[in-house]
Amino acid sequence: MKVLHTSDWHLGQQFYEHSRHAEHQFFLDWLCNTLTSHQIDVLIVSGDIYHSATPSAMAEQQLYAFIRRAKTDNPNLHIVITAGNHDSANRIETAKPLLSQFDTHVVGRFDKHTPHDVVKTLSTANGTLQVVAMPFLRSADLDAQADDPQAYQRGVARAYQAAYQALDAQFPVLAMGHLHAKGGSISGDSERNITIGGFDAITADVFGERPDYVALGHLHKAQKVAGSEAIRYCGTPLPMSFSERNYRHQTLLVEFTNNALSSVKPLDVPRLKQVILLPERGGATLDELMNLLSELDLSQYQDTATPYLRLRLNASETDSQFRHKIEQALTDKQVHFCGIERVSNAQQATDEPHFEDLGQVEKLEPVSLLELAYRAQIDSEQAVPQALQDCLMQVLASVQEQEA
């Protein structure tokens, strides 16, 4: 039996005000072909199907068109989709009656009173698979107290154990999750930090020993958790920010033989548009940037889509005409220009986030933003008081619950 593990599609994302519809369609077309060529029995999408809790009609249509084509090309295919922290649980749940007609099983939220609802038993031509389709868990789903850092982890563990009670011992189990597992590598500027009750990452122990494979979403970099071949993030299918430009984007082909996990193989996702950052590290003077632009060879992209380009300029640059000069240098360059980032000397030394415009501030994790504001406005020498951090955590938890 073959399962394809994906996550974090972020349909509807705007990349520095540039639409990514064509890139997402390129991925979905590749995915449809992959499902057919590898004869996939089950497709898993572990959260963040959309980039926003209120996706555009175009993004929703893109998802539904994909599901229809995938089922037309692969009549025996099952699809399982769970809500991530970017998704609206209500919106995901509303689509359930429609999508069930296409053997597509969606779970928007976990109800502690009916934990068995997240268990999906899928009968395929190559065997039966039990999927624990656990969506992103909010503190309200678990009765976790915001002032207890360990309450969330205990609640997550209880949720999985409660769901496992509905499992049949004779069939393999795949558990889904959308969370930050402890030790996982997070990208620098595109993932929303999941912080509930002051606890921003949980250990792999919450999954217990019952699952044969754990298919995770949220972290954008493909990686193993706790060194386990059977607990994996597949990562995003395309870079969500410039910090992810060098990621190996992939889906994971998970195979079960004789009701046991037999292999996990990455399938690299082709990239429609390249992501270029100049310079790669630190900032450059205006003259250095002009030289980099003059040497920029875009001929390698002639047969592909127009690449994205972002420039990094030293904050100490004093030439008031820098924008005009850069625009002139870009006149004959076929790129999607994504702006100029001013990089301070302190940032180059510490790699601390710096943003030229307020529109990029949302890419900071809430705690990081609090720390920057505290140092700038209150005390540059002292750490943020724990009481203030706890207050922020309670506000964030409340907001996440209201968005559910």
Automatic annotation (TrEMBL):
A Pfam family this chain is assigned to: SbcD_C
InterPro entries named among the record's database cross-references: Calcineurin-like_PHP, DNA_Repair-Maintenance_Comp, Metallo-depent_PP-like, Mre11_N, SbcD, SbcD_C
Gene3D superfamilies found in the cross-reference section: 3.60.21.10
Residues annotated as domain Nuclease SbcCD subunit D C-terminal: 284-377
Keywords on record: DNA recombination, DNA replication, Endonuclease, Exonuclease, Hydrolase, Nuclease
Single GO term (MF): endonuclease activity
Residues annotated as domain Calcineurin-like phosphoesterase: 1-221
One Gene Ontology biological process: DNA recombination
Record's keyword annotation contains Acetylation: no
Quaternary structure, from the entry: Heterodimer of SbcC and SbcD.
Biological role: SbcCD cleaves DNA hairpin structures. These structures can inhibit DNA replication and are intermediates in certain DNA recombination reactions. The complex acts as a 3'->5' double strand exonuclease that can open hairpins. It also has a 5' single-strand endonuclease activity.
Stated family: Belongs to the SbcD family.
Protein name (Swiss-Prot/TrEMBL): Nuclease SbcCD subunit D
